[in-house]
Write a structure and sequence with these properties.
It is a single chain. This protein is α+β, with helices and mostly antiparallel strands. It is 31% helix and 28% strand. It has helices at 32-54, 59-66, 96-107, and strands spanning 2-8, 77-88, 114-122, 129-139. Strands 1-4-2-3 form a 4-stranded mixed sheet, with helices on one face. Helix 1 (32-54) runs antiparallel to helix 2 (59-66) and helix 1 crosses helix 3 (96-107). The model has no long low-confidence stretch (mean pLDDT 89).
Length: 140
């Protein structure tokens, strides 16, 4: 199974850079930083949902994304590949590896068998985006 989609900007600004992965403890789940990270993950899932609908993917994918769940559950996916191409708005951005992690957190309940690639460049004004290709390598 393969899915390709684009995330434009972030949840706060369609010209804003993608949000890096937040490393939070249990007690930090209600902080403004945690809330912002949760909103970013919903933005990633909403972008995936648009592609799932446009590409006529299976209805279970629509249901999960509509309910703001992980697209790939830990009991279903053994491995996967996530390739991302980031176009930054400006120099005020996170590490590319951290952006990869935030997108993986958004889509996969368990990403320990996820592999992939990252490329990044600075774009012109209005070109901020993350192009994503997801492929399941194997299923249980």
């Amino acid at each position: 199974m393969k899915l390709s989609f684009t995330i434009v900007g972030n949840q706060e600004d369609e010209q804003g850079n993608p949000i890096p992965k937040a490393k939070l403890t249990q007690g930090q789940q209600w902080t403004s930083r945690a809330q912002r990270y949760g909103a970013w993950k919903r933005h990633v899932r909403a972008s995936a949902l648009d592609a799932v609908i446009a590409q006529n993917k299976p209805s279970w994918m629509v249901v999960r994304l509509t309910q703001n769940q992980h697209l790939f559950d830990k009991d279903e996916v053994v491995g996967g590949r996530l390739d991302i191409r980031i176009t930054w708005a400006n120099e005020a951005h996170g590490d590319p590896e951290s952006i990869f992690g935030s997108i993986a957190d958004s889509l996969f309940a368990q990403d320990k068998h996820l592999v992939g690639s990252i490329s990044a460049e600075h774009g012109d004004a209005g070109a901020v985006a993350v192009d994503i290709d997801v492929k399941l390598i194997s299923e249980k």
